[in-house]
Amino acid sequence: MTAEPLIFGPDFKWGVSASAYQIEGAVTEGGRGTSTWDTFCAEPGRILNGDTGAVACDHYHRYAEDVALMRDLGVDVYRFSFAWPRIQPTGQGPANPAGLDFYDRLIDELLGAGITPAPTLYHWDTPQPLEDAGGWLSRDITSRFADYASILAERFADRVPLWMTINEPMVLTLIGYAVGGHAPGKALGFEALPVAHHQLLAHGRAVQALRAGGAAEIGIATNHAPTWPAGDSPEDVEAAALYDNLINWLFADPIVLGRYPEGLGEAMPGPVAEDLEVISTPLDFFGLNHYSPTRVGAPTGNPDSAATDGLPLPEGLPFEPRPIDEYPKTDFGWPIVPEAFGEILRTLKNRYGDRLPPLYITENGCAINDGPVDGEIADQRRIDYLDGYVRELRKAMDDGIDVRGYFQWSLLDNFEWAAGYSQRFGLVHVDFESQVRTPKASYHWYRDLITKSRG
Ligand code: GBH
User: Fold this and answer.
1) Residues 24, 168, 217, 343: which is the catalytic one?
2) Ligand 1 neighbourhood includes 150 CB (under 6 angstroms)
3) Which atom, in ligand 1's list, is nearest to the CA of 221?
4) Residue nearest to atom 26 of ligand 1 (CA)
5) What is the reported pLDDT for 122?
6) Domain ranges of the chain
7) ipTM value for the complex
8) What is this structure's pTM?
9) What's the CA-to-centroid distance between 4 and ligand 1, angstroms?
10) CATH number of the domain at 13-453, please?
11) Distance from the alpha carbon of residue 5 to the mean position of ligand 1, in angstroms
12) Is the pLDDT of residue 301 over 90?
């Protein structure tokens, strides 16, 4: 397909994104402690086909090959995450030297390949002992997280310019603690709200620790998607507005504006006003993960379970996700709606105006599960998805939205949480038996896009 090449100029940063538990494997090596995801995967029935991240892409051993794939792809930046249990096996106390050494090797390999490392401190893999002590329901974890951030800054700030604190705190709150489809598997409904506050406070304290340790540019990666009311009735509109506050603004408003969306601050523990001062510590950039829009209406007792990764919602919720069936879908069943990407970018700009920091798109991509045919993977539907979304991004930037970079999710097919290895987001196919990596058609397409986009 594709019409004229898209020009983003020489300064725009193109990247790929990944996370520790989804790719590293080697869960018992290098002194790594147990994470909540190791525990969760060991519980029968939690993960499709009983899959686990114990081996995943074996990136812990194959990182050099993976960096070479990125170098040949021509990306400027690589977003990965530190595994907290590698750095601090129990979540507190002195750093584990072998854990630091692994990320040293990875970072040096990246720098040697001309790729800027852009790590996230936390992508859902909590050290199990911290979870046993209350996890994100306990305020104590915010001190632990600040210590962890200090360790990382001290070791890596000299070579790492771009930092993110937490990945998708909403997904951890909603799927991890409210409905129980991710680790730690708790189904607390609205009782999960303290998890949001503690992640926000941990974020703010980590920003301060990273700054004190010399980190140059600091942000967060939160997921955002337009919430479309299911109909025009006041009930649907109100239900959608409530859902929108929870899903889109519960984290962004406190960070950008220093206050909770209406009605939500009251549900939070601790000295909320004081905490908001820390939470709103200024950021250098704001990271946006986006996949697909959500439709929400008033409760009918017949929700769309896709929006909670197939899990039943708690009873008695004041809103209900509904299917979006009028667009094509990825193999994961998520609707493909490039305009919704432009819509959420404009919504962010309208909501925050000049208070919105420069943006990075820290994740965008799709599950297309095509496999090799004669050694080639012709994943044209992924190319079409990415082409459509990148064009929407260009339009939003032309409308004055300041976006500095775009990270495709993901370089490799990897462990897709509760879906195990059944959903493939990679530009590179991974055979999970042999660990052979095979670049797909989309890999070549992305390389071409990057080259031509420089202008
Ligand atoms: C991200 O989560 C994660 O950061 C990453 O680890 C993960 O691998 C990647 O995305 C792909 O899943 O049925 O249309 O309503 C994204 C999590 C995706 C959860 C969209 C809610 C609703 C889809 N969100 N999903 S829909």
Assistant:
1) 168
2) no
3) 4
4) 307
5) 99
6) 13-453
7) 0.94
8) 0.97
9) 31
10) 3.20.20.80
11) 29
12) no
Q: Whose CA is nearest to atom 22 of ligand 1?
A: 307
Mean pLDDT of 332-349: 98
HEC string of the chain equals CCCCCCCCCCCCEEEEECCHHHHCCCCCCCCCCCEHHHHHHHCCCCCHHHCCCCCCCCHHHHHHHHHHHHHHHCCCEEEEECCHHHHCCCCCCCCCHHHHHHHHHHHHHHHHCCCEEEEEEECCCCEHHHHHCCHHHCCHHHHHHHHHHHHHHHHHCCCCCEEEEEECHHHHHHHHHHCCCCCCCCCCHHHHHHHHHHHHHHHHHHHHHHHHCCCCEEEEEEECCCEEECCCCHHHHHHHHHHHHHHHHCCHHHHHHCCCCCCCHHHCCCCHHHHHHHHCCCCCCEEEECCCCEEEECCCCCCCHHHHCCCCCCCCCCCEEECCCCCCECCCCCECCHHHHHHHHHHHHHHHHHHCCCEEEEECCCCCCCCCECCECCCHHHHHHHHHHHHHHHHHHHCCCCEEEEEEECCECCCCHHHCCCCCCCCEEECCCCCCEEECHHHHHHHHHHHHHCC
pLDDT value of position 143: 98
- Catalytic residue flag (residue 4): no
Residue 260, pLDDT score = 98
Q: How far is the CA of 221 from the centre of ligand 1 (A)?
A: 13
Whether the pLDDT of residue 207 is over 60: the answer is yes
Distance 222 CA to ligand 1 centre (A): 11
Q: How confident is the model at residue 311 (pLDDT cuts 50, 70, 90)?
A: confident
Please indicate if the annotation marks 163 as binding a ligand. no
Active site residue 326: no
Identify the band that residue 309 occupies on the pLDDT scale cut at 50, 70 and 90. low
pLDDT over threshold 80, residue 109 = yes
